[in-house]
Amino acid sequence: MPCIREKEILLNGIYFLNLFHDFLPVPVLMKCIGALSLIVQTEDYLTYRDIYLKTSINDEIIFAFKENCLKKYHMKSEYRKIVRPLMDEIDRFIRISCKK
Predict the structure, then answer these.
(1) Rounded to the nearest 5°, which phi and psi values hold at 54?
(2) Radius of gyration, CA atoms only, the chain
(3) What span, in angstroms and rounded, lies between the C-alpha atoms of 15 and 90?
(4) Is residue 51 within 8 Å of 11, Cβ to Cβ?
(5) Where are the chain's structural domains?
(6) Residue 47, number of CB atoms within 10 A of its CB
(7) What residues contact residue 84 under an 8 Å CB cut-off, 6+ apart?
(8) For residues 82 and 29, what is the distance between their CA atoms, to the nearest angstrom?
């Protein structure tokens, strides 16, 4: 998983989906969100969480992604299982960034 960490795939995926989620078909969007959810569940992510989400500029992007994209699908029961791990991790990240 170090290659995922070094290439910043999680942040790039969040940035991409924040910009283009309206243009993607729902099945493709759910696969992308599912892949990001799998990343946040790995042992490498849990060990190096601060490195995966490292800059202050990302705070606005991550919050916007949650508001614009994830909230819409978090309420639908067929997508909740896919969206939930990523949503929980973003909520945790927002709580920690507000304390700083």
Answers:
(1) -100, -25
(2) 13
(3) 13
(4) no
(5) 2-99
(6) 12
(7) 37, 74
(8) 11
